Amino acid sequence: MSSLAAERRSNGRAVAPTTADSDNAAVRLLGASKRFGKVVALDDATLSIRRGELMTLLGPSGCGKTTLLSLVAGFLVVDDGEIEIDGKRVNEIPTYKREIGLMFQNYALFPHMSIADNVGYGLRMRGIAKPDLKRRVAEALSLVRLTGVEDRRPHQLSGGQQQRVALARALVVSPKVLLLDEPFSALDRNLRASMQIEIKEIQRQLGVTTIFVTHDQSEALSMSDRIAVMFEGRIRQVGSPDEIYRRPADRFVASFVGDVNVLRGRLDRVDGQAIVTLGAAKISVPTEPLARVQSGDRVDLFIRPEQLRFANAGGPIAVDGIVAAHIYQGGYVNLYLEAPEVCSSRILVRSPEPDAISRWPIGTRVGVSIASSDAMAFEAEPSPQGV
Amino acid sequence: MLGIAGTLAVLTILGFVILPAAVVTLAAFNDKALLAFPPESWSWRWFAKALAYEDFRSGVRNGLIVAGWASSIALLVGTTFAFALDRYSFPLKRTLEAVLLSSLIVPHFTIGLGFLILAAQIGWARGFAVVIACHVVLVLPFVLRSVYVSLRNLDQKLELAAASLGASPARVLATVTLPLLAPGLVGGWLLAAILSFNEFTASLFVTAQRTQTLPVAMYNYVREYADPSMAALSVLYIVATATLLTLANAYLGLGKVLNVESRR
User: Fold this and answer.
1) Domain final residue pick, A194, A221, A253
2) Do residues A242 and A307 share a domain?
3) What are the residue boundaries of the structural domains of chain B, listed by start?
4) Do A288 and A230 sit in the same domain of this protein?
5) How many cross-chain Cβ pairs, A to B, lie less than 8 Å apart?
6) CA–CA separation, B141 vs B98, rounded Å?
7) Chain B residues with CB inside 8 Å of A179's CB?
8) End-to-end alpha-carbon separation of chain A, Å?
9) Would you call A100 and B161 a contact, using CB atoms and an 8 Å cutoff?
């Protein structure tokens, strides 16, 4: 785990990788940069993807995640830095010699070929003999649970089926790394969820190293072994979904992944520990992001909705707010509170209690306490209206 | 929905579109040695005469030679430029495009005259080379356009997917790009061949007795005779072109061939 910690500390800045790291890495980027004219699409990215893991590149559009994927695929060439696949430098190796598998958002199935020919394409390019080829195509199609469509054309299949074909086509060549470029965005919601589970299962079963690009944070949290959060061309944090969610490295990661409340508090340093005071509550927070903040300074406390409790559950009251809206979600209720003195937008509290709406009607003043220690604090933004 | 006036207007327009071909077709069957409409007595004999007339036979032969070479060369050149225009950005790209499409603006007789002067300078005025070169320039914009539209409709991710599966650039071209462009390429070639075979104005300048194409031969004929063999020839021409396009439609889909149909 030491390399992970190093990556997190680095916030994406180049860090000398340890040997253990390079031995175990299926794909490695070392200070990789890519510019398009004056625009820096990828800035000094260092990332190590372990054998068999599913690494997600998560970020808003334009964050550089697709650029990074294209660099690994060989569609683009780095301006600076190194790309390694399987311990071998591939900077100048063209795509077709990289032994990768790729699935595009629109699947990019060859419209003039049958499904069997689509899936067998990579094997034909490798000169695999016909009987062997047929067997492996059949295996790949049964792996993605799609049989009996071998002679059809792509346009005769549904979106979900086309995706299975694209996956089979990418996997049949036993790629060193599987690249998934926003594979679910063309599917409707229900199909998306089931395909996510299925692809994750297949990936785990085959143990194929996978890089998955998405802008959807819930998709990233549910599918990944690790996530690299990217913003404005830089890798901001690398970690397990849980680490990313509970210990975000900066304000951007904290607000991009999951719902979060940003509350204004005051920092106290006690015996080298960082304590944020908010109302009557004192919340212990990690010290690392607060290196530049003095005791007594204002900080922004980032806290997840499920970590907030209504005060009747006990604990010191951190915030007093007025209930402004309810959103009933079935399993839980989202309550939005207004507390302008600590939060410039509305505070979201997630209550599992089914009678929350009747207990706290709109307009009620209610005290909120903080239930868990998973809060993070970051230096306050210059403008208090900023968040 | 249109009303009587509207229906009449549509029928009138359609009538005018069909009228010339209809008149010529009927005139072709006139037994008399006159280009007259409507004919008074009927005969196939002008078809026989048109098919037997030596200038027409050599005109067809020459026309096929010129159309075949010119459209093939234009296809090669046009495809290369279409790729360059679609895939790369470079200085003076707009200028290059304008030059390639310029023969749409410059009158055909200017192009023909220009080639005639040039060919006379280097002593090529009596050969096929100048006719073919002239026709390449004339049909190039159409080929370029046709291939360019096909390239625009081609999802480049298909080529990337092929490359990711281990296909070298040459194999990507052979197994993905060209098969998917085929309708556009065939369509462009066909359009160029038909235009070239039909071309008269520039051909009048650049052909000699030995190289004259069918339209030039027809022009020379009609200056001296006024019998219906011209009309018969027109009918044969229409039938041949229609057959060709029907076959192209059956095998490739006319919408795709003529690029009037989007594949997205």
Assistant:
1) A253
2) no
3) 1-43, 52-257
4) no
5) 64
6) 10
7) 164
8) 33
9) no
Q: Which tokens in the block code for residue A318?
A: 């951190």
Q: Which residues of A touch B153 (CB under 8 A)?
A: none
Q: What pLDDT sits at residue B264?
A: 40
Assigned CATH for B52-257: 1.10.3720.10
Each residue of A295-325: pLDDT tens digit?
A: 888 889 999 988 888 876 667 888 888 999 9
- Print the domain residue range for A309: 259-379
Residues of chain B with Cβ-Cβ distance to A101 below 8 Å are: 164-165
Number of domains, chain A: 2
Q: For residues A298 and A277, give the distance between their C-alpha atoms in angstroms, rounded to a whole number.
A: 10
Q: Which of A110, A124, A133 to mutate against chain B (most B CBs within 10 Å)?
A: A110
SS3 call for A129: coil
Asked whether residue A281 falls in the same domain as residue A369, the answer is: yes
Report the CATH number at residue A57: 3.40.50.300
CB contacts of A125 in chain B (<8 Å) are 165-167, 171
How does pLDDT run across B188-229, given as a tens digit for each residue? Answer: 898 899 999 999 999 999 999 899 999 999 999 989 888 888
- Would you call B160 an interface residue with chain A, using a CB distance cutoff of 8 Å? yes
Distance CA B114, CA B132 (A): 14
Q: Has residue A168 been placed in a domain?
A: no
Q: What's the one-letter identity of residue A161? A: Q
CA distance A272 to A372: 21
**Pair A234, A267 in one domain:** no
Q: Is the CB of B167 less than 8 angstroms away from the CB of A121?
A: yes
Bridge partners, A310 (sequence order):
A368
Domain assignment of residue A283, yes or no: yes
Q: Tell me phi and psi for residue B226, to 5 degrees.
A: -130, 35
Among residues A253, A275, A294, the one where a domain terminates is A253
Q: Compute and round to an integer the Cα radius of gyration of chain B.
A: 22
- Does residue B259 surpass a pLDDT of 60? no
pLDDT at A258 over 80: yes
A101 touches chain B (CB under 8 A): yes
Nearest in space to A151 (alpha carbons), one of A137, A139, A163: A137
* Token representation of residue B62: 């020459």
- Asked if residue A219 has pLDDT above 60, the reply is yes
User: Does the interface ipTM go beyond 0.95?
Assistant: no
User: CB of A264 within 8 Å of any CB in chain B?
Assistant: no
CA-nearest residue of chain A to B156? A108
